[in-house]
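Input (structure):
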């Protein structure tokens, strides 16, 4: 069974940067007709045209904006619900505005996107939806109350929508990335001391790249995952499987942004 999206239309929200862009670029290389939905300020048209896709200005918090974007793109065979934001703050400093903004974009935005796309996909009796959740959907990493809550909510959306859309042969899954090198996390990756300590708990000893998440998304969206729905695929270097990480100075050396075993 080929890993190919020839003749299929894919929509990627938040596709002008980071994980979304990596997904859009990969699906384009795999012969899908890709449409990047993103805010006007992110220049979706210019970004998408640079790798052979089509960019459409859209705001996932605005159903009318999404309606117009889907009118321009047409019904998707693949829908990647990726648009999201993340901001750190302790619980007591998490303002109502910050809380509402995270839920508006990360959770309500996903809801609006899927709700608008569902009737278009049901009419075709096929399709795949992949949402970008997070390892923070499961754990309580401090100073991320709003972000963690919004990403946890996404899993409820995945499970419910998979149940409702399954009869129309529409599969719904999520990827749960760990710490991935993007524009939002560039400051973390630049802090060697922080990364040295953080990656002690990651069995692979490093962070991930957007392309590695994109490959997981493409798998879930493809016919290779034809009997997979309502589940999550964790892309985190093993972090969620590790209570006490394997890395220490006795057996390994931290080199710039990753751990390496010492030569025996």
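Output (sequence):
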């Amino acid at each position: 069974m080929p890993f190919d999206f020839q003749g299929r239309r894919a929509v990627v929200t938040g596709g002008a940067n980071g994980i979304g862009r990596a997904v859009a670029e990969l699906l384009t290389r795999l012969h899908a007709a890709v449409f990047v939905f993103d805010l006007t300020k992110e220049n979706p048209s210019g970004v998408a045209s640079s790798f052979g896709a089509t960019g459409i200005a859209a705001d996932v918090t605005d159903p009318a904006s999404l309606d117009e974007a889907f009118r321009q793109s047409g019904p998707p065979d693949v829908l990647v619900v990726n648009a999201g934001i993340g901001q750190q703050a302790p619980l007591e400093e998490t303002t109502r505005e910050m809380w509402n903004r995270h839920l508006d974009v990360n959770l309500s935005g996903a809801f609006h996107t899927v709700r608008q796309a569902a009737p278009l996909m049901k009419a075709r009796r096929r399709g795949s939806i992949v949402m970008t959740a997070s390892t923070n959907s499961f754990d309580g990493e401090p100073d991320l109350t709003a972000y963690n809550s919004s990403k946890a909510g996404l899993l409820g959306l995945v499970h419910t929508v998979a149940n409702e859309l399954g009869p129309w042969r529409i599969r719904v899954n999520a990827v749960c990335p760990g710490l991935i090198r993007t524009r939002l996390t560039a400051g973390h990756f630049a802090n060697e001391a922080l990364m040295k300590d953080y990656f002690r708990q990651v069995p692979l000893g490093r962070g991930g790249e957007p392309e590695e998440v994109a490959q997981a998304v493409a798998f879930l969206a493809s016919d290779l995952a034809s009997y997979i729905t309502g589940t999550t695929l964790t892309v985190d270097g093993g972090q969620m499987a590790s209570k006490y990480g394997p890395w220490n100075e006795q057996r390994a050396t931290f080199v710039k942004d990753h751990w390496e075993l010492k030569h025996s």
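Notes: The helical segments are 18-29, 44-49, 63-73, 96-122, 145-165, 186-189, 192-198, 210-221. The chain has a mean pLDDT of 96.
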